[in-house]
TrEMBL record:
InterPro entries per the UniProt record, alphabetical: Methyltransf_25, SAM-dependent_MTases_sf
Domain Methyltransferase residues, every copy: 51-137
Keywords recorded for this protein, A-Z: Methyltransferase, Transferase
UniProt name for this protein: Methyltransferase type 12
GO molecular function: S-adenosylmethionine-dependent methyltransferase activity
Domain of life: Bacteria
Gene Ontology BP annotations: methylation
Amino acid sequence: MIGEIYADALAGESAEIEYVDGTRVMLETARWFEPIDGDEELLSRCASPTLDVGSGPGRLTAALTRRGIRSLGIDITPRAVALTRLAGGFALLRDVFEDVPGSGRWATALLADGNIGIGGNPEALLHRVRQLLRPGGTILAEVAPPGTRSRVDRLRLRRGPRAGDWFGWATVSASDIQRIGLAGGFAEVDCWTAHGRWLARLH
Ligand SMILES: C[S@@+](CC[C@H](N)C(=O)[O-])C[C@H]1O[C@@H](n2cnc3c(N)ncnc32)[C@H](O)[C@@H]1O
């Protein structure tokens, strides 16, 4: 997801996700620029202030700002941050595992569009995001449909002969999110489906 090829993909260039076994699939960034069915399920549950982790081009951060929810997008890709600002959201170039403003004070943290995969270690990511939340805060995460195998893939982005660095990306199934959330110290974990997406609330 990370690096120049991803930045170029956000600018409209084509790019592929390449797995270690050689499988390649198109990276479809265009869908992140417009509202996606089911976004409302996330947006309507966000309280002020909300941290959009891995905000990409910022459709959710900007939508929250428009509806009067204080929100901040963080992303490690400068072009994503620039696009979020262009869309009308507040955004900073930050790695979620490093220094993030407002630590311990966020009411909601969003891990949308499969961003529970960031870092390739969902337990570590949930632990980190929990540190950023205020007591009683909530994580809203998008997970994979039940029956999907939860796993960590090594992948990289490719555009023709150019390939980026390998990185880890986790897939978490709706069937596993409750176990992972409860083991991570969350008291309540709900999971539901809307518009073909699987969403989880960890509280
Ligand atoms: C699947 S895309 C998310 C799309 C986004 N939610 C949207 O609405 O457009 C994943 C994003 O996470 C960002 N990312 C990856 N690792 C990150 C990290 N450690 N901290 C913050 N952002 C990260 C990537 O740069 C990328 O923009």
